[in-house]
């Protein structure tokens, strides 16, 4: 008869397989719904008198122009993108309705709209709101028909943006406030076409779906002038999502109380078992990856500081015309991508290091593959970043932008050629890790299931990046958003999370602190819990991206469950801390484990608390694209994945150079500086600024919370300057960690003496 642990493991594997099958089936079904119900792209926008305002080609070419100058790195559309410049769809909507009201006021009352009394203004609101919400798209002709009066309002708003994206002195102050360089779109026809895209994006936010009373974007953004207020479904599903979260936390707490701690703890081995791992040539070749990690990390911080400074001076850096050479769209693109790249590089290197370490097998040509992948990573970084600079500076041309320039989609905005190259690199990584892990998976010992789960997460990480190749240059923006969050959410928050759990479990098993069978069961159970909310939780990003109510219902219900495993993260951290103090030689792994503890803390705060703060439909309706989402993004991305990347790097470095003297002061100071700096930038700037934007949105609308008028207030300037202490402390922490890594190569030669003897005299190693 099979042991009980084997039966449990088999059931968990079957449960995980069924969960993933159902989850991805639902995701693809919702994807089909998005394809069918996305806001229509008209063949032309035409007035009642027959004047063509915009054509389909104008709107699509205008989107390409917007993407070529940075796209979502210069303001946002439907709430997705950068935070300094406006949300163009929200601002266009407000300017259009105000211009329309003014035209109607002058026609009916002979005076500007602002000069009317409240009752007269209310009369105009009552007249115009049904007109602007009426869906006049004709599926037979593909035309959107508008009144001649509305066409006049559109013309006025278009003239404003034609000026903003030129070098017109009349709008120079706005370009500075938006951190746009002078003459960002030199070609006048390109500017005209871009206004067509802005109009269409705004039209979708306020035009009711056929047979419905809410817009294609579920009434986002908030705009009281046109009745863009939260829908009944947003209220209802926000309430249910909170109930789902409470129920999920209760069930998981019950499971933890009933089943946790039933197994007697292991007696740790007398000496470090990891010292028995033979470092192979390919494992040693991963060392250069960690130099690259620190280099990319430091450059990312530099780009982050530059990007933040643009919020103060707009186009300059202490009087130097920086925007002429390194525009905001470039620094922010590089800052966000470098965050992904250095974290991913640390994780890729960990997989390459652990493959042979787990199996004890060095495949043929493994070192060559590791070195080739390293060179490819450098080429991808240099090539894609150069292409983005040429695109934003308008030196590449629209014909080449999609393939080699700037796609304009936040986090996945490198040119398609470089995306394909990166996908091939991930396939190589998958092959290298898989062939090294294969013997461990075939052994059927206590770590074979962990090795199998590690391999499956590697497969998922490699293959799921293909979602970034699922759109073309002219693919509908709703569909691009759908596939983009397969990368931003599912790729990072889903399967990298599984990879991390499997890696950390293997480390604890290898150190003799956890039984292999227990770790396998725990890893599989944790994976099921993460995937239950993590996969379908992706839909909370899509509430207002031109999708139907079903996405709100499903996203709100399931994304709430993402918080469930984080609710007990403190107990997991306590167990980790106890394990780290189990035996004197564990002092050697103090700092990797400290970074794992930091992951637990920021998982709870950044991903859990700040994540749930914004992910219900009602909350996100008012908070999307504000600094509250930035607070969640910074604390979750670096606090969880960045800290984990550094922790994994330190574990690998300990194995690569087991006898090296670690400079404890450097790493201790770096650790606390990173955590304190991240806390300060969140508490002193991002959260209070986000709260002020939330208040502004509630009172006057989303356009105002993102406007130059609001963002140039003295209190906002003060909060921006308050980033300096946190950013400085954080940068010092990164520099100290980099200095520590450098010291492992440039420091004293290792002293060959027994571990126990060294621990007596140098307990900080």
TrEMBL record:
GO terms for cellular component: membrane. One of its GO terms (biological process) is aerobic respiration. Coiled coil: none annotated. The keyword Transcription regulation does not apply. Pfam families: COX1, NorB_cytochrome_c-like. Residues 328-765 form the Cytochrome oxidase subunit I profile domain. SUPFAM superfamilies: Cytochrome c oxidase subunit I-like (SSF81442). The keyword Electron transport applies. The chain crosses the membrane at residues 12-31, 235-254, 289-312, 334-356, 368-391, 418-438, 450-471, 483-509, 521-544, 550-571, 591-614, 634-653, 665-687, 728-746. GO terms for molecular function: cytochrome-c oxidase activity; heme binding. Keywords: Electron transport, Membrane, Respiratory chain, Transmembrane, Transmembrane helix, Transport. PANTHER family: CYTOCHROME B SUBUNIT OF NITRIC OXIDE REDUCTASE (PTHR10422:SF38), CYTOCHROME C OXIDASE SUBUNIT 1 (PTHR10422). This is Nitric oxide reductase large subunit. It comes from Lysobacter concretionis Ko07 = DSM 16239. The lineage of its organism: Bacteria, Pseudomonadati, Pseudomonadota, Gammaproteobacteria, Lysobacterales.
